Amino acid sequence: MPSLLVPFALSLLVLPLAAGASSFAGTSAGSASGASSNSSGSSSGDDKVILAARDDAAAFVASDGQIRGARLQAALVHLREQDAAARATSDLALAQALLAR
């Protein structure tokens, strides 16, 4: 039974990722749909990058961008590779969105 919970838990992590990515799309409907389709294909390795960055993101937000950890930097690069709209979003806004997941 626990093996059935793993895919379910992963899907719960991917859904907020898709919703968060589409929120960076702004007013362009094309960007929003593109962001969602890119995010829905993320693997558990991608989720690990994002989840591992939460502590670094919290420090970054709390310090108003003064503390930048390596895990956060990796997550920012990953998000921007996956979502064109994230490329135009500030590091602070992406870190806040990462924490809101």
UniProtKB/TrEMBL annotation:
| Pfam families documented for this protein | DUF2388 (PF09498)
Per the record, where are the segments of Low complexity compositional bias? 25-44
InterPro entries given in the database record: CHP02448 (IPR012661)
Top-rank lineage group of the source organism: Bacteria
Annotated region described as Disordered, given as residue ranges: 25-46
The answer to whether the entry has keyword Signal is yes
Where does the secretion signal sit in this chain?
1-25
Q: Which keywords fit this entry according to its UniProt record?
A: Signal
Identification of the protein by name: DUF2388 domain-containing protein
Organism field: Stenotrophomonas lacuserhaii
